Amino acid sequence: MLVKTLVSRYLKSNGIVAKKSDLGLNFTYDGLNFLLWNDADDPMFFRLTLPGIFDVTDDNFAKAIMACNNINWNYKVVKAVLYDYEDGKEKGASVWLCYEQRLEAATDVESLLNRAIHSLLAACDAFMKEMNDEMNLIL
Predict the structure, then answer these.
(1) Burial grade of 34 (CB within 10 A; 0-12, 13-18, 19 or more)
(2) Do 22 and 15 meet the contact criterion of CB atoms below 8 Å apart?
(3) pLDDT in tens, 120-134
(4) What distance in Å separates the CA atoms of residue 82 and residue 80, rounded to the nearest whole number?
(5) Concatenated DSSP letters for 1-12?
(6) Which domains does the chain have, with CATH numbers?
(7) Residue 124 in contact with residue 48, Cβ under 8 Å?
């Protein structure tokens, strides 16, 4: 069974409304927007992202890169990346957090999704704390 189907069923059974998009499934948890990517070439690949947690500018670029590196070093399976975007109206960069795993047929989706969400939330908190600490040092 496809990852998207397994996760969609789990979310629905827990009262979480997921919306399909071109990229995958979008849902809100704890006030934050998550995106479960749809990978047609690898339907058993699980990639849950917490997109756009921090806007990157020329002024904070170096600090954001260092904070991303610290997340990548300290959090298992979570990756912090800078994502460049251009949508016709706007252009810029933001920090995205990703939790990725290749699933086996007997994967416990409930445990995986809970672990992924809470790992992303913890990494988000750590990233924001580090950026706030850095910004306070400058002031």
Answers:
(1) buried
(2) no
(3) 999 999 999 999 986
(4) 7
(5) --HHHHHHHHHH
(6) 3-138 (3.30.1460.10)
(7) no
